[in-house]
Amino acid sequence: MAQLFQIHPDNPQPRLIRQAVEIIRSGGLVIYPTDSSYALGCQIGDKGAMERIRQIRQLDDKHNFTLVCRDLSEISSYARVGNQHYRMLKVLTPGPYTFIFRATKQVPRRLQHPKRKTIGIRVPDNRIVQALLEELGEPLMSSTLILPGEGEPMTDPYEMKQVLGHQVDLIIDGGYCGYEPTTVVDMEQETPAVVRVGRGDVELFDEL
């Protein structure tokens, strides 16, 4: 059965953050809050945990996984970001956006879109995630916690434990964080294209 940590959304307890990262490093699959909704996360190179995410969400091999990063400098290690896109990211991160970029060789092939060789990149504006990433020292591989057949992400950590307690290792209760997935922007186009409207403000793209 999964452990449940209650972590303060504004002042995450360092002891619990360290314990959560130990679980991730040992192959654990965690549910954690972001600035748009709860998500599933695991270590970037963990094939077993990735397959567990696929099973929970019933994802096919065309699904674009997301790397949740600390900042712009970490993004550049995993995505091919041009100067124009870099300026846009500087304005929009951290925030509730997922950006689709061509992946670098640092990204395991199984995480990339099989044909386009792309990867989702995201920098959430959430202190719990930022503390986890700082302690982990690398991105989290992530996917929004939307169960098969549902239109919105799960929001209640206690319901998550009832439904998924035997399929994940840790649930981080960081309070209510919303139920809208991120706005997804394809940065492979000559002009960035919004492919899913979510919590992020799409009108900002007209100003950039």
Automatic annotation (TrEMBL):
Classification via Pfam families: Sua5_yciO_yrdC
Source species, domain of life: Bacteria
PROSITE patterns noted in UniProt: YRDC
Domain YrdC-like as annotated: residue spans: 14-200
Single annotated GO MF: double-stranded RNA binding
PANTHER family for this protein: DHBP SYNTHASE RIBB-LIKE ALPHA/BETA DOMAIN-CONTAINING PROTEIN, THREONYLCARBAMOYL-AMP SYNTHASE
NCBIfam families reported in the protein's UniProt record: L-threonylcarbamoyladenylate synthase
Protein's name according to its UniProt entry: Threonylcarbamoyl-AMP synthase
